[in-house]
What does this fold into?
Amino acid sequence: TVQPTFDAPDAGPTGKTLTFTLTVTDDDELVSTDTVDIVVQKVPPQADAGSDQSVNEFDTVTLDASGSDGVGLSYQWTQTSGPEVVLSGDQDIQPFFAAPVVGPSGEILTFELTVTDDDGLESTDAVDIAVKIRPQADAGPDQSVDEFDIVTLDGSGSIAASGLSYAWEQVIIADESGVKLSNADTATPSFSAPDVGAAGETLTFQMTVTDDDGLED
It folds into this structure.
């Protein structure tokens, strides 16, 4: 036919050149020939290091190379940036690690995946893991006040990666020393110091902070 077709064969690691000869014959039996070369290249493997992730400190993070494509693949993971972590297996399809402690601004950990097929051809891909700080509550320094003073608690030293809500409560109440907090859902609630005996009283307050991911401290 004018346009025959075929399936390209396995080319091996170096590729193959297929040569075809065309012979055409007219009604008078006159003949002409020509040739064409078809270069078949080996299809390299396709590395897929998975989607970027956003995690929190101490989370168990799993990398995922299962989306890679090729025949007889082997895997090699290498960390290229960020605080160094220990992978469960740097030649595994899905290695895991514990997210490290990071500062308030967080850290980006980058991992490069190299896949090698059974012909020795390679492909690489990279994935970023954004590690966010867990919320850290800071209820402020202890205070010494007088009866009837207006006392302001201070949780403004608390930190989180994004968003922070506050919940204060009095956790140790002795005798008549229970107080009513104003704005207990803010960083700086206040109360009026109660009337106490000659020995005074110690009031204890607990603050819980929660970030946008629902993590608490």
Observations:
- Residues 86 and 97 are 6 Å apart (CA to CA).
- The two ends are 76 Å apart (CA to CA).
- The mean pLDDT is 92.
- The chain is about 0% helix and 35% strand.
